[in-house]
Amino acid sequence: MSLTEHPPPSPGPGPQADGDDAAEQLRERISADSLTTRRDYLRIVATVSGGLAVGGIGVAAGILHRHGDSETLPEPRLVTDQLAPGRSAAFRFPGDEDRALAVRLTDGSLVGYSAVCTHLACAVLWREDRGADGELYCPCHEGVFDARTGEVTAGPPPRPLPRIFLTERADGSVWAIATARSGESAREALCRQFGDSRPAVTRQLECPGANGGARTERGRT
Ligand code: FES
Q1: CB-based contacts of 19, cutoff 8 Å, min separation 6
Q2: Is 116 in the pocket of ligand 1 (CB under 6 A)?
Q3: Over the stretch 13-65, which tens digit does the pLDDT of each residue have?
Q4: Is the pLDDT of residue 136 over 50?
């Protein structure tokens, strides 16, 4: 099912329906074995979420909330109505305190990365004029992240920026629908967040323990 066939989640289907749509969209995309965008298809993209309203010391110590810690899929959230090539959009996801950044690269790909540096939680900025894809830059200690992958390319940040999975709908609006932890693959992130709640999806993703989920599902019918 194409994303174009889905109405915006609000007003409309409730959070559960949105979660089901998001799960199906992500499953389809991962089944295609790609998270890069395709111009002839509405896109699921990796972006970043995770701004924290807390200090970097707590983040570095792992004692405070970090982006992607949720074990369940967050409720989809509108990022922006439109995002032109070479432009970025700041938003909050999955929580109201979680700062995030979506970027439309010059080739049309949508990417995004946490607006919270993985070093000491300073704000990460988008710099369009740095190379073909631009870069994500942390001014506190000259940290630099690859705009297409979120990987660290310079400076002291110890980990890639966490990602958010996005969809772009037929009207051009961009929605955040799921998150990943720093360095976590899309499959790992979805298996973790779907857990036992979507056994059919976890089987298709071949998540660890998915067969157990299948047995549980059959046992209920
Ligand atoms: Fe970003 Fe130090 S806080 S490089």
Answers
A1: 73, 75, 76
A2: no
A3: 444 455 556 556 555 554 433 333 333 233 333 333 333 222 333 333 343 34
A4: yes
Give dist(CA 24, CA 73) in Å, integer: 12
Phi, psi angle pair for 143, to nearest 5°: -80, 140
Q: What is the pTM of this model?
A: 0.66
End-to-end Cα spacing for the chain: 26
The DSSP element (H or E) to which 220 belongs, if any, is: helix 210-220
Q: Using alpha carbons only, how large is the chain's radius of gyration in Å?
A: 17
- Could you give all domains of the chain from N- to C-terminal order, each with its CATH number? 1-64 (no CATH), 77-184 (2.102.10.10)
- State the closest ligand 1 atom to the C-alpha of 124, by its place in the atom list counted from 1: 1
Strand partners, 48: 101
Residue among 80, 69, 70 nearest 112 (CA): 80
Best residue among 59, 113, 120, 125 to mutate for probing ligand 1's pocket (most ligand atoms within 8 Å of CB) is 120
